[in-house]
Amino acid sequence: MQLMSSRAGGSALLLLLLLLLRCCHIASTRGHKSDSALAVMENTGGGDEEEEVTVEEDEGDLEVVQPTGEWQTLQPGQAVPAGSHVRLNLQTGQREVRLGEEQLKYWTQEHRETEESRSSFSPTELKRAMKKIKEDMNPASKDQQQTFRPLEELKRDMAQLDLLVETDVQIMRRLLESFNSSESTTEQKLSVLMELEYLVHQVDNAQTLCSMGGLQLLLEGLNSSDFRLQQSCAFVLGSAVSSNPLVQVKAMESGALQTLLTMLATAQPLPVTKKVLFAVASLLRNFPYAQRHFLSHGGLQVLSELFRADGGGLLRTRIVTMLYDMISEKELISQAGLDLGLDAAHEERLRQYSAVSLQGELREKGWCSLVPLLLESTEHDYREKALRALLAMAPVCLDQYRSDGSLLGSLLSLREQYLEMVQSEMIVGEENGYFGEIVELIHALQVKIK
What we know:
The protein is mainly alpha-helical and 450 residues long. It contains 23 helices and seven strands. Helix 22 (405-427) runs antiparallel to helix 23.
């Protein structure tokens, strides 16, 4: 009985082996050029009707399948990388492939992506790419060459573009011609003045404006019957002379200071007066010659009348600020004159400032009692400007300060008011704030008066 069972088992095994060899022959026929070395792997699972083999494929002009960790079906004409596991599915009769054990151990996602990219190009695609490279290396066609313009033609076009770009000098000449034209409307002239005001902030442009006769046109515009033209002309004039010594001299020679003082002495709309004050302050700044003529032509008297007439405080603040700047400017020059080794230019400047008796004129024209009126304003900025001017005028005004009961009372009340504000600043964590500076100014003035 055992002998018959053994013979039956041997027959079954032999039949299975013959069937496996037949299937491998069929698979080899379907694979065309693929010569495979098959190794029969013993099926230890016992339940699957499949056999597992290890195949080493040669690399031909075949579609290479990239195996993964899962079994996948091989199509006819497909090859697999060496070391892959291939099995024959006895149920479907199809070959299946997956990675070998060593490949599963070391194969990473990066390797798979690299291999896929390498195997994704067919011979046809490679031939097409090589043909494209050769075409790109060919010289440009005639049509392409025609798209490039000769160098001489480009230079000629660039030169024409340069001719179309206006320089500042050309722009100002065009603007002045338009402003002086009888056909220009008031709106056009206002537009011209706006452009000129922008240009004259540059020192060279302001000087060029003078050489073109623009300064005389501005002075004529100050006498216009249209207050808008007066305002704009004063604005351009102030911007042109600001920090520009050459233009300041030209303006003085043209009689600009006298024209501006005349406008301040007559009733003008507030916008015009503000711009005229700006022009006067710009003309006097760092120009002792103009300051001396300002004093000799009754400039302080004109400003005092304007100061008294202003009830809002805006013009008062501008006037006081201008006077404070003039006092501080002369004081700084005088202090620098104490140093040894000054050059001739500075000595001449010091001599010119010494001829400007500004503080004496302020005392004689009643400014020692006028400036304290600005402390009545509710604006903190106005009060600050007044306190700084009072301190600057203290050397010639102390006697008037001490006899001015209104000033002394204002200082006491302002000190108490701002001390409370300082306490409020400290509560919110602001030390040495703006109100603290005002308290220091009040204290310094009180010390001088005592």
